[in-house]
Amino acid sequence: MIKKTSLPLFALLACFISCKDYNKTDLSNEIAKVSHWSYAGETSPEHWIEIEKNSDCNGKHQSPINIINKDADSSATKGDLKILYTPSTHISKVINNGHSVQFDFENGDSINYKNENFYLKQIHFHEPSEHKINGIIYPIEMHLVHISKSNRIAVLGIMGEEGNDSQLFEFFESFLPISNGETKAIHQKIDLSSLFLEDKNYYSYGGSLTTPPCSEGVNWFVFKQPFILSEKEVLKLRNNMPINNYRNEQPLNDRKVKLNY
């Protein structure tokens, strides 16, 4: 059984994209441009600033972080984020980009944050989780990456905890195994409204991409309640990704984390 642990943070949100013109740039191309970084050896996170000279990887508002519940600013601002997921959105393809397993989406699902729409572009996974909550690392973290028409980024981070089988993960994993560098076309419907995110409390803070170029200005929403999936499902996904694809915990510095309820 894989258990939660309080190891010194291993986390990562590999948003395999940079803050460029997303209406003109294919996300898969962006992944290829940064493929020289990794999670081990001379290209590990400790060396990203050396590899990406003009990046934000040594910035003051970086992700991931360790979220301490008692230090979070609790506020009844849950209405700032609206989840607009429907049963009719299509996954276009799945990619093993050497850093994670990534599912790209056709136009459909979106979120609205402070009256700005952010459109779901891709979902990818990290094992173990990138963010910690009260020092705890979860077996898996799912990142749902959204981009607005003004090219702003919003990411939903959802921890995974072991328990019963998950129908959603059974669907994701029906397209596995997938080898490094391989892409598979899917074009099938997926119902992310089954996550019931609108009913769950979440932490929010301003951070960054957790992979080069570590661009700052990312709106992060990390859900307090984990989703449940089986150990078998965790292991199947892990077998298709690099081991420990996480970035180390980053300092909070002058930022405040909010707990929205």
Round the mean pLDDT to the nearest integer and report it.
Answer: 87
- Stated plainly, the CATH topology is called Carbonic Anhydrase II
Terminal Cα separation, in Å? 32 Å
Please state the overall shape, judged from the principal axes of the Cα atoms. Answer: globular
Share of β-strand residues: 25-35%
Uncertain regions spanning at least 5 consecutive residues: 1-34
Catalytic activity: hydrogencarbonate + H(+) = CO2 + H2O
EC number: 4.2.1.1
Enzyme class: lyase
Keywords: Lyase, Metal-binding, Zinc
Structure write-up:
It is an enzyme of class 4 (lyase). This protein is mainly beta and 261 residues long. The chain has one domain: Roll (Carbonic Anhydrase II). 10% of the residues lie in helices and 35% in strands. A hairpin with a 7-residue loop joins strand 13 (202-208) and strand 14.
List keywords for this structure.
35% strand; two-stranded antiparallel ribbon; disordered N terminus; 261 residues; Carbonic Anhydrase II; mainly beta
Helices, strands, pairings?
Elements: E1 10-11, H1 27-33, H2 48-51, E2 66-67, E3 73-75, E4 81-84, E5 89-96, E6 101-105, E7 110-113, E8 116-126, E9 132-133, E10 140-148, E11 153-162, H3 167-173, E12 183-190, E13 202-208, E14 216-223, E15 227-229, H4 231-238, E16 247-248, E17 258-260
Parallel strand pairs: 2-9, 3-17, 11-14, 11-15
Antiparallel strand pairs: 1-16, 4-7, 5-6, 5-12, 6-8, 7-8, 8-10, 10-11, 13-14, 13-17
Cofactor: Zn(2+)
Function: Reversible hydration of carbon dioxide.
EC number: 4.2.1.1
